[in-house]
Amino acid sequence: MIGLEAMTTAAQYRQYAEECLTAMRAALIPEVQAALFTAAQRWIEEADRAQRSEDDKPPPAAVRRKRTSDEAGAPAQT
Question: How many other CB atoms are found less than 10 A from the CB of residue 47?
Fold first, then answer.
């Protein structure tokens, strides 16, 4: 994908749910509406699960890096 950022997994699942709801609103057959609503609910559940998993991941190494002793306790130089 040139020029586009990849969506996170949770964001992808939420997009799928939104697409189901859009199709549900356009559907004329009640059984199809019900099936699309159920599918949207399941995508939202997956998004919530993925979000919890993403939230549990440790930050990247650059952010997680421990401060050196110079950075930790030394007063700022002016």
Answer: 20
The answer to whether residue 78 scores a pLDDT higher than 70 is no
pLDDT in tens, 22-48: 999 999 999 999 999 999 999 999 999
Sign for the CA dihedral angle at 62, 68, 74, 78 comes to negative
Q: Do the Cβ atoms of 24 and 61 come closer than 8 Å?
A: no
Residue 46 neighbours by CB distance under 10 Å: 17
Buried b (16+ CB within 10 A) or exposed e, 14-30: bebbeebbebbeeeeee
Q: pLDDT per residue over 3-24, tens digit each?
A: 555 556 899 999 999 999 999 9
- DSSP label of 57: S
- CA–CA gap between residue 3 and residue 26 (Å, rounded): 32
